[in-house]
Amino acid sequence: MDTRTFTVKPVGIVHADDESFSIEIAGPFRPALRELGGFGHIVVLWWGDRVDTPERRNETVCKKPYTRSPETIGIFATRSPVRPNPIALSVAPVIGIDSVSGIVRIAYIDADDGTPVLDIKPYLPATERVRDVNVPAWSSRWPQWYEDNQGFDWAAEFTSEE
């Protein structure tokens, strides 16, 4: 087993409140925003800092996270930030970019206010979109396209945390 360790340095933080979402890029990384404005969506890699504990990093299975899932499910079959390395990924629609202030305004992100952002990549249909995809039966009723999420009752799909 590879025993190397890595140092990860945040490039920014998430700002989220009841009315808006944005990512504030740290000063040294603001030049990296050049030409990002032409993309309609970005892929945001963020650190699940609120679940980053030794105990949570050792969790490999979870109890029925989705209403239609099996009673237990491997953590790699979820999008939960609870995992050996609490790296999470979100696709976010870009509303606007202010390169000078380092603010990337986005329509939504499922990260909390103050969440560290590790990286941003442009969403590229040629590499991210898959035409013929397979999913387990328990998730087959979920929307097939990002745009179809808006009217979908996601709250009904998740079991309540105890």
Automatic annotation (TrEMBL):
InterPro entries: TrmO-like_N, YaeB-like, YaeB-like_sf, YaeB_N_sf. Belongs to the tRNA methyltransferase O family. One of its GO terms (biological process) is methylation. Pfam families: TrmO_N. It comes from the Archaea. It comes from Methanoculleus sediminis. Gene3D superfamilies: YaeB-like. Residues 8-132 form the TsaA-like domain. PANTHER family: TRNA (ADENINE(37)-N6)-METHYLTRANSFERASE. GO terms for molecular function: methyltransferase activity. Keywords: Methyltransferase, S-adenosyl-L-methionine, Transferase. This is Methyltransferase.
